[in-house]
């Protein structure tokens, strides 16, 4: 692990990243630390965080508002790909990491830094996403991870920071580790490390408990253009506004909670709780609209691409050469995915109850069992004969030997 003179540090304002500032300077000989806090719609005032970094010893404290980019360049491609890691997690936190990595690299290049740093430990996924993403964007930059090497407990880190005048008003921290952005929240650690422990309501912030949800269902119509969500109930909305409004509407009905055991990149299993109201419903609605507008073979083949795409994001390979190849396929499939999906929200459930598209390849006169039926029933017999021919030949050749 090389040393550096000027470092751009991904900064959240928490204990670890705050302690990273004096640690980098006093233990690793870094001369200048520039911090970068990314605003990804987490609903948090970042000016105090900016000021805190300077008090901790940073020579410059940057705040980048990248919320719109986060939605248009990261969330929307994921929706088009129906990304659900292990068929459950829509990657709300994982999607933020390649964007933060990009911001770090851009800042390092702008301020002539020779390294970037983060506060990740050696057990999580984010270290992989940052390290791989940064080196893919600029392989000449060093990547420093002090928290991965210093071996201090949280209490020891606080004590270390206090030696350099860093004030930590809340000494007793929450037992939970929480990450939030516009797309959702991830909650882990503390009592949740026991897979049999039921999460308490205190950990949730974006979704209501079922007992507190409305007693009447609410219908939401989501409009898509070429796979991209563009409207709610007929009202066109900008990307950030659309996600924000849908988060509120969906979360109000208790939809969007995930409690799962997932397989981390580093080879261990972890228990994770997620709140992703808008993202889950958008993927559900988008996939349903595809069932109306894509042919069977494209739909089936795309399922494998979606799984690969989900794993690619989760494993920190956003900037790998495989991603643009997958993007090209997905973008091609989205040319006809335009229309409206009607979703019923009620007591923790989001149920698709309707869909329509000018590009629909659902043919009522072929599907109906009524008088309007145009399907040639007589043709079915010949089709079945040809379709079943290999099975019949196999049976004739082998049934006497079974």
UniProtKB/TrEMBL annotation:
One of its GO terms (molecular function) is ATP binding. Homotetramer. NCBIfam families: argG, PRK00509.1. GO terms for cellular component: cytoplasm. It is found in: Cytoplasm. This is Argininosuccinate synthase. Residues 176-394 form the Arginosuccinate synthase C-terminal domain. Gene3D superfamilies: Argininosuccinate synthetase, chain A, domain 2, HUPs, Single helix bin. Its EC number is 6.3.4.5. Pfam families: Arginosuc_syn_C (PF20979), Arginosuc_synth (PF00764). InterPro entries: Arginosuc_syn_C, Arginosuc_syn_N, Arginosuc_synth, Arginosuc_synth_CS, Arginosuc_synth_type_1_subfam, AS_cat/multimer_dom_body, Rossmann-like_a/b/a_fold. The keyword Cytoplasm applies. Keywords: Amino-acid biosynthesis, Arginine biosynthesis, ATP-binding, Cytoplasm, Ligase, Nucleotide-binding. Belongs to the argininosuccinate synthase family. Type 1 subfamily. It comes from Hyella patelloides LEGE 07179.
């Amino acid at each position: 692990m090389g040393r550096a003179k000027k470092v751009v540090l991904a900064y959240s304002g928490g204990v670890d990243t705050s302690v990273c500032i004096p640690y980098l300077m006093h233990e690793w000989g870094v001369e200048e630390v520039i911090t970068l806090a990314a605003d990804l719609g987490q609903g948090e005032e970042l000016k105090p965080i900016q000021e805190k970094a300077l008090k901790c010893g940073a020579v410059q404290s940057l705040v980048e508002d990248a919320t719109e980019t986060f939605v248009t360049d990261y969330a929307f491609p994921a929706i088009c790909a129906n990304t659900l890691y292990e068929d459950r997690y829509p990657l709300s936190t994982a999607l933020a990491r390649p964007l933060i990595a990009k911001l770090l690299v851009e800042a390092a290049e702008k301020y002539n830094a020779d390294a970037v740093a983060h506060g990740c430990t050696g057990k999580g996924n984010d270290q992989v996403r940052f390290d791989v993403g940064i080196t893919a964007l600029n392989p000449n930059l060093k990547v420093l991870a002090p928290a991965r090497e210093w071996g201090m407990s949280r209490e020891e880190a606080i004590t270390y920071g206090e030696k350099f005048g860093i004030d930590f008003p809340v000494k007793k921290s929450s037992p939970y580790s929480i990450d939030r952005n516009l797309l959702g929240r991830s909650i882990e650690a503390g009592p949740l490390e026991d897979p049999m422990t039921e999460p308490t309501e205190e950990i949730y912030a974006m979704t209501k408990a079922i007992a507190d949800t409305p007693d009447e269902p609410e219908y939401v119509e989501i409009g898509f253009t070429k796979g991209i969500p563009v409207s709610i109930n007929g009202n066109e909305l900008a990307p950030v506004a659309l996600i924000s409004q849908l988060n509120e509407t969906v979360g109000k009905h208790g939809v969007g909670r995930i409690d799962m055991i997932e397989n981390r990149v580093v080879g261990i299993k972890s228990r994770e709780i997620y709140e992703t109201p808008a993202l889950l419903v958008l993927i559900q609605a988008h996939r349903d609209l595809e069932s109306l507008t894509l042919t069977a073979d494209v739909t089936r083949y795309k399922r494998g691409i979606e799984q690969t795409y989900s794993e690619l994001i989760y494993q920190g390979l956003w900037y790998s050469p495989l991603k643009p190849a997958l993007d090209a396929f997905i973008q091609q499939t989205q040319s006809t995915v335009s229309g409206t999906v009607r979703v019923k929200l009620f007591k923790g459930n989001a149920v698709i109850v309707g869909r329509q598209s000018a590009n629909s390849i659902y043919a009522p006169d072929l599907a109906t069992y009524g008088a309007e039926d145009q399907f040639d029933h007589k043709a079915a017999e010949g089709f079945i004969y040809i379709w079943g021919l290999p099975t019949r030949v196999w049976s004739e050749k082998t049934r006497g030997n079974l």
